[in-house]
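Budget justification aside, the reviewers requested a transparent look at the raw inputs and outputs of the sequence design task funded under Objective 1. We therefore reproduce one unedited record. The lines immediately below are the C-alpha cells for a 408-residue chain.
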C-alpha cells in the first residue's frame, strides 16, 4: 500500500520471543483525528507513531499493548484511518505482536473489522466484550504470557452479557475479571498474565479531555478489581500514572486540553521476568509544542518579562481585568502568536453573586447540581426515592448516548 505515510509490506510471521524477559510497550489514548482547540494534530500524531515504531525496533520490545481510544470518534476521518493503517503495517513488518482494545471513543465494531485476518500478522484487535476470557498467548523462554483484552465496557450495553443485575462500571469489570481468572486457572502453572482495560480506576487523576463515563454517580472502580494478574495496562485517563506497581496508566501521547500542561507525555516500557517480577521505565513522547496557562490582566501578560519563555508555546490566557479590554486576542497574539484559548475571569469581591454561584457549582456532579436545583425551587432537597429517580434519568441519558455512539 502507498499513501500519505509511505509504503508498507504485510508480514504474516511474528518473531519468536526467546529472551529472558518479556518486554512490553504500553500506550493508549492516541485519539487519532483529534484536534487541540483549532490545531490539527495529525502531524504530531504521525510523529508520535514513528517514534513508537522506532522504540519498538531499538529497545527490543516483544509486544505492544494499546489500551483503547485509538481513534477520537466512532467514525474517524480518512487521514486518521490511513495513519492507523500505517501503524499496523509498520509493527507487522517488525514482527512484533500488538494487542489492542477499543475505548469509549472508538466504535468497537468498526475497529474490530478484519480482526481475524489481522491476527495472522500478529495484530490482535480485542473489541468483543464476550471474549473477555479468551487471551492472546505469547511465549518466551520462561513459558506463556496470557494477554486479556477487555474493551471498554459500557454497563448498560454489556450487563446482560456478564449477568450482572447492578448497572455500574465496577460490576461489569469485576465480572469480566472473573472470566479472566477462571481462564488463567486452567493455564499451565507459572503462566504470566497481562490485562488491558479502559476504565477510570480509583486513585487516578483525571484531566479535562476525557469523556465522562459516569454511571450511577460512580465512574471509578477499585484497583483491587485487577488483583491476581501480573500487569494491568490501563487506558482512559490522559496522565501517565501509577495506581499500584502492577496497575498503571500510560496516558495519552499528546495533550488534548490545557489541563494537561503539567503532564510529561510518555509510554511505559515494562519488563516482565519469568517469575512475574516487574520493572517499568517511562519513554518520552515527542513534544510538538509546550503548553502554558497564563493568568493576569492583559497589560500584565503583555509586559511581564518572565513570560518570554512562553512566547512559542500554545497558550491559554485567563484575563482578570475588571473590565473586558478591547481586542484582547489580537493584542495577545502579537506577543504569544500561538494563543489558542482566552478566558475571562474578572477579579471580583468575594460576596459578588457571580463568584458565589461559580463556587457552588465547582467540582459538583450533574446529580448534585440537579439536587441543589430541586432544593432551591421547593425549599427542600430530594428524598432518597427522588434521588433514585434523578440518578436513573441521568443513567438513561448516558446509556442512550452510548447506544447512539455504537450505532454510528
Amino acid at each position: 500500500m502507498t499513501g500519505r505515510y509511505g509504503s508498507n509490506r504485510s508480514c504474516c510471521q511474528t518473531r519468536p520471543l526467546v529472551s529472558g524477559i518479556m518486554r512490553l510497550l504500553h500506550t493508549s489514548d492516541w485519539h487519532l483525528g483529534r484536534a487541540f482547540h483549532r490545531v490539527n494534530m495529525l502531524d504530531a500524531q504521525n510523529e508520535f507513531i514513528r517514534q513508537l515504531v522506532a522504540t519498538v525496533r531499538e529497545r527490543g520490545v516483544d509486544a505492544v499493548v494499546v489500551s483503547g481510544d485509538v481513534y477520537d470518534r466512532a467514525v474517524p476521518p480518512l487521514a486518521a484511518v490511513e495513519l492507523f493503517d500505517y501503524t499496523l503495517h509498520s509493527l507487522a513488518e517488525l514482527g512484533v505482536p500488538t494487542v489492542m482494545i477499543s475505548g469509549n471513543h472508538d466504535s468497537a465494531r468498526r475497529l474490530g473489522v478484519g480482526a481475524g485476518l489481522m491476527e495472522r500478522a500478529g495484530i490482535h484487535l480485542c473489541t468483543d466484550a464476550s471474549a473477555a476470557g479468551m487471551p492472546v498467548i505469547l511465549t518466551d523462554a520462561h513459558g506463556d504470557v496470557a494477554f486479556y483484552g477487555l474493551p471498554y465496557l459500557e454497563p448498560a450495553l454489556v450487563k446482560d452479557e456478564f449477568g450482572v443485575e447492578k448497572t455500574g462500571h465496577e460490576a461489569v469489570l469485576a465480572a469480566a475479571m472473573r472470566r479472566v481468572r477462571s481462564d488463567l486457572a486452567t493455564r499451565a502453572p507459572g503462566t504470566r498474565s497481562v490485562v488491558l482495560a479502559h476504565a477510570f480506576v480509583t486513585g487516578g487523576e483525571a484531566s479535562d479531555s476525557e469523556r465522562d463515563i459516569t454511571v450511577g454517580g460512580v465512574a471509578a472502580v477499585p484497583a483491587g478489581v485487577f488483583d491476581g494478574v501480573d500487569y494491568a495496562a490501563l487506558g482512559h485517563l490522559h496522565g501517565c500514572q501509577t495506581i499500584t506497581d502492577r496497575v498503571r496508566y500510560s496516558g495519552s501521547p499528546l495533550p488534548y486540553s490545557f489541563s494537561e500542561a503539567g503532564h510529561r507525555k510518555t509510554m511505559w516500557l515494562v519488563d516482565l521476568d519469568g517469575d512475574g517480577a516487574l520493572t517499568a521505565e517511562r519513554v518520552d513522547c515527542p513534544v510538538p509544542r509546550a503548553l502554558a496557562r497564563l493568568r493576569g490582566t492583559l497589560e500584565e501578560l503583555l509586559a511581564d518579562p518572565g513570560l518570554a519563555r512562553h512566547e512559542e508555546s500554545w497558550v491559554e490566557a485567563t484575563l482578570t481585568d475588571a473590565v473586558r479590554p478591547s481586542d484582547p486576542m489580537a493584542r495577545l497574539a502579537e506577543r504569544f502568536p500561538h494563543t489558542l484559548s482566552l478566558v475571562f475571569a474578572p477579579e471580583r469581591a468575594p460576596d459578588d453573586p457571580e463568584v458565589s454561584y461559580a463556587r457552588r457549582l465547582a467540582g459538583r456532579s450533574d446529580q448534585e447540581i440537579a439536587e441543589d436545583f430541586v432544593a432551591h425551587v421547593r425549599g427542600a432537597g430530594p428524598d432518597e426515592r427522588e434521588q433514585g429517580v434523578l440518578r436513573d434519568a441521568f443513567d438513561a441519558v448516558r446509556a442512550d448516548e452510548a447506544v447512539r455512539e455504537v450505532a454510528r
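The radius of gyration is 23 Å. Residues 384-407 form the longest helix (24 residues). Computational costs for records of this kind are itemized in the attached budget.
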